[in-house]
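Workshop exercise sheet. Pairs work together: one partner reads the sequence aloud, the other fills in the structure field after running the prediction. Swap roles for the next sheet.
Pair: D.N. / O.F.
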Amino acid sequence: MPRFSVIVTAQGLAGRLPTALDSVLAQSFTDFELITAHDTPGSPAATVADEYATGDPRIVRTPGSRAEGMHAATGTYLLFLNATDVLTPGALAAMDARLQETGEVDVLHLAHERVPWWVGEPVAEGAADGDPTDVRRPVWATAYRRAFLADHQLAFTEGHFTDIGWSGAVTLAAGRTAALDTVCVRRHERRPSGSDRPTPDAQRQLLDQVELVLRRAAEQELDQDTSRALFDHLFAEVLDTAATSCRRAFFRRAGRLYRRHRPAGHRTEGLRNRLLSRGAYATFRALLGAERRTEQARAFATRAARRWRRGRPSGPYRRYLRRPLDENLAVYAAYWGRGYACNPAAIHRKARELAPHIRSVFLVREQDAATMPEDVESVVIGSRRYWEELARAKYTFNNVNFETAMVKRPGSVHVQTHHGTPLKRMGVDQIEYRAVAAATGSFGRLMERADRWDYSLSSNAHSTEVWSGAYPSAFTHLEYGYPRNDRFYTADPAEVTAIRERLGIPQDRVALLYAPTYRDYPRDVSAQFDLARFCAELGPEFVVLLRAHYFLEGDADLQQAVASGRLIDVTASRDTEDICLASDALITDYSSIMFDYANLDRPIVTYADDWDVYRDTRGVYFDLLAEPPGHVARTQDELIRVFTSGEWADERSAGLRDRFRERFCRFDDGRAAERVVRRVLLGQAEEELPPVVPLHERLPVPAARPAVVAGSRTHTPAR
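Structure field:
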């Protein structure tokens, strides 16, 4: 029997689960078992738990919640964590030492810290602080003797506010308790959001839990001080909940409970308590309204001061914000206004087809306005009309964040489409990488922008896991695929041929797309990759398409790499999907283009000459060299050999690509844009959306040189 059973739940928080599990497995005290109680099989959390459990006998997997984890536990003491919690180094050893001193207590309260993910210093809370009858003390910072729980048949219920009922039952049943003032648990708390407000059903369940505790307390002969303290703690939670969203039915029932269970001689203190005890709902609502208006005025003044300091045109924008939302207006933007591109453009096209009643407007920088298609309505960013459209739009789509000055209005819907599957660390996961964190700036402002998201688009379960941890806010994941990748399945061979002719690719050449990513550290690209030499040594059957990262547009070293007709610079082209369709294989380093390109089922070669520096400086989510989409070259000579030897298109390349596609092309099937439009703009339910086509049933458009590219695979030629 292990000393401790550490039960970790991860419903919807797979992005933080590895950190939580690592904190337990790294403990110096090893007499424990780790139980992962995850959500449905096949979910991101279940996948992470399965990977950790492989080969580690200390890990027990069980689907479900804390109740199932508790049933599977065999330890003397139980500790309940979730994916946002970590054990501090030496925590289990400190807990064991304290229990050796106190003997077999029923409950051991632990000192802990609450750490904001976004900004701010940790807030420490001592184990001995506060009233022992406080049912709001965190369950995740408490160790429970398993035999005590079994003797009293204590168990978690399903639903909302279950911790109140659990803690109340434990408080009433516990005999001996103790405290440990060593900080043992650190909780990373996400930002509060309007969507966190309890629903009517959740409020009903809160009162169910409160009533259950009050009835149990009435059955016991508690002393007056304990009874009064327990009563006050319970109704402090009720009033805090009422302050966020107070409905008449909730208030009336809460008032009845207050009057029925108020202990003898209890003195009602505080205006809110007195209003509740009297059932004065209208007055209570008026009080909340006055408090809310005061807080909004303060917040507005703060935002206005920030905009003034940043030079934002707050005056006209404020006036437009007073006008009602246009229920039939959607605005789109991509890459900070760099034109008509990426997922927003793909959704825009589908919206005009399926939701023609929605007026769609694209936001673009002044210098890129000339590149916009003639049939696309657009406005220049920063103009007076820009602020009007942004203020009144019911729907907003962006693959990055809108500027900080943008106000997320009640009733508006914002879809964060993203612009790639993440290999490098993103969002608050960048904090520990100093160079990147310094360039990112304020993580508080970053999270303020992420708080505006209603939906976050994912093309695979890996992305869902990352987004949930990197941007810890209250948005809904849409696992629909990336709309920009639809063309890889909807284009036809004739279209591929036409694109190649437009780009000037000779019919008899194999086109290799070279698309490196941006570095957050100094790097002499021309010195580390001699593009002219590479093109010359490949041989006459190849032509290289150079696609530099948009952050590197105009870089002289890259733009001057010319090799006598064997290189075509396509950096200025806005249509990344066209370039991918035109090519027969991809060469990249750590760019997210590899995840999109894998949908085409064409060879990918990774040139990773500075992987160690990139990994340690930028931070990554997985080891690309251990799980690559194809052959890996660490030097330029190796890269040349991969192509001159034919390895780039051999069976090993195909096998690596198959495994990569299985993990990262899960939701891309050619109908992603349709799913987004139907769900967001047309309001259709999930079950009404087109189901994702299984990977083995999809038919991406074939390459122009299939005999060379596919090896033993069978494809239809493009010509």
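Discussion prompt: The two ends are 69 Å apart (CA to CA). What would you look at next?
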